[in-house]
Specification:
The protein is α/β, with parallel strands linked by helices. The protein has 22 helices and 13 strands.
């Protein structure tokens, strides 16, 4: 049995290659494409029979274009790196249907890969090349003899619209790097939570940010941050000093974002203090825009999914929740978050948690709480998601963060809501959107809900990403992969539970 499961375990890396496929999940048949104005949700009629959940264990291929593959030079394919891996997957039939914008981004990542490989020794990337004792004491000696050691290689900041494949491309690059290098790939939310946790541990030190930067750079010289988005003033105030220390320690940054560097933290509190970070970022990273206008998450073949629109659907959601937990009995639970904090889960069983929208988005919770939740649960049933506007802007921010954390953890969402993903955010807009609808006269009719319009640049940009992710999380491909991953993890858990004497036999 152990030998059989070991062969299953070898497929884990294949899952990692598929993990972000939906960022560019380009299906072959265009008839399955979902337009941005189409609904990917299920509106149950009265007394309608709800279709059963889909649980096929299928791998879903990632996507790129054979046309784009033809644009890759033969000389480029003779090297190692993300561009070569891209070509290999196309020839193997694993990737189909891409665009030239992603190929252009791959060339930037290949250029960075080549520069890093060539300068690996100078960048001190090999974790085994420096004795452990020297690594431990580097910060101590730097205090006695201050010195800077900027990397000879500049990093890369990838930005563009939602669903253009930024995360998938960065992961393709990251996974081609040697495993013995000091490298780390982490979501920006999670990274900043880790920074604040370290700062707490170093209270009383003259410059705790320098100590934290020293610890981070000892662990990883190549730092890949996904979804770089600054909304918290506490983050904004420390980013410049933190990254100046990191860059001074030789760290190379690769980041993805929906915002161009100059638009980060736009309109934020005390932004003047944040602006030097933008200059630092542009000095140490090459900014590259992915110009594709296609949201490839919406090219998934969405089914009815688990997104139910309407009122008085509490009974339906609880019925679906009960189907998922099976014979297990749901009960209140407590999960640990960070720094001694805990989160109360109203109902939980068999990896599934049940919350009302108010319990999860109207309370003072944040990314740390959500990360803690999904380290313990793989499925969330969320009852009563509200439409967002000026009256509940804070709840909208929390919901955006919640969806980001769920997507990062590839979690499954069941929910009831007042409207489709697009309808939930129709009253949220950027300043430029507001200026387009601003000219009005007394002779023109005003919408009744104009008073609830929320003009917020950060939220206005973030809503597109959230709508895109909710659409993908409701798709057949996403749900199939979630089911396959759950099946694999259960088989591995069973194998680990086999007694030692049986394993040896």
């Amino acid at each position: 049995m152990r030998a059989a499961v070991r062969s299953v375990r070898n497929q884990t890396s294949a899952f990692q290659h598929q993990r972000n496929s939906y960022s560019s999940a380009f299906v072959r048949r265009r008839s399955h494409l979902i337009e941005s104005n189409s609904s990917s949700v299920y509106r149950p009629p009265d007394n309608a029979e709800i279709r059963r959940f889909l649980f096929p264990a299928m791998f879903i291929s990632r996507a790129f274009s054979t046309d784009a593959a033809a644009k890759v030079n033969i000389a480029e394919v003779n090297r190692a790196g993300p561009l070569v891996e891209y070509e290999r997957r196309i020839l193997a039939g694993e990737l189909v249907d891409g665009d030239a914008c992603q190929v252009g981004t791959l060339r930037e990542l290949q250029r960075l890969y080549d520069e890093i490989v060539e300068s690996a020794d100078a960048c001190r990337l090999d974790r085994y090349a420096v004795p452990e004792k020297i690594v431990r004491n580097r910060w101590f000696w730097s205090r006695l003899m201050p010195q800077s050691s900027y990397s000879p290689v500049k990093g890369l900041y990838l930005y563009g619209g939602v669903g253009t494949g930024k995360t998938m491309l960065m992961d393709l690059f990251f996974n081609q790097l040697p495993s013995n290098w000091r490298k780390k790939r982490i979501h920006f939310h999670d990274f900043m939570l880790n920074v604040h946790s370290r700062l707490q541990r170093h209270k009383g030190v003259a410059d705790p940010l320098e100590v934290v930067a020293g610890e981070i750079s000892d662990e990883a010289i190549l730092l890949c941050l996904d979804e770089f988005m600054v909304t918290d003033v506490a983050d904004a105030l420390i980013l410049n000093r933190l990254f100046r220390h990191l860059f001074s320690n030789g760290v190379i940054l690769v980041a993805t974002s929906n915002r161009a560097p100059d638009n980060l933290y736009e309109g934020g509190l005390l932004r003047d203090i944040f602006l030097p970070f933008i200059a630092t970022l542009k000095e140490r990273c090459v900014a590259h825009e992915i110009g594709s206008a296609v949201d490839y998450r919406k090219l998934t073949s969405a089914e009815q999914g688990f997104y139910f629109i309407g009122k008085d659907l509490s009974g339906l959601l609880k019925e679906k929740f009960q189907q998922l937990i099976g014979e297990h009995i749901a009960s209140p639970q407590v999960v640990e978050v960070v720094m001694g904090r805990t989160l109360q889960v109203p109902l939980g069983a068999n990896g599934c948690a049940y919350f009302s929208f108010e319990e999860l988005c109207d309370k003072p919770l944040g990314a740390a709480d959500y990360f803690g939740l999904f380290k313990n649960f793989h499925t969330l049933a969320l009852e009563g998601v509200q439409k967002f506007g000026l009256h509940n802007r804070t709840a909208a921010y929390r919901f955006v963060t919640l969806v980001d954390v769920m997507y990062e953890n590839r979690s499954r969402l069941l929910c009831t809501a007042e409207g489709s993903p697009q309808e939930l955010f129709e009253n949220i807009m950027t300043v430029s959107d507001a200026q387009q609808i601003a000219p009005r006269t007394s002779s023109r009719s005003r919408r009744n809900d104009d008073s609830d319009l929320c003009v917020d640049n950060e939220l206005g940009f973030a809503k597109d990403r959230t709508i895109s992710r909710l659409t993908e999380m409701n798709s057949k491909e996403y749900l199939e992969q979630h089911a396959a991953e759950r099946q694999l993890s259960q088989e591995l858990a069973k194998a680990d539970a086999v007694p030692v004497n049986m394993k040896q036999a």
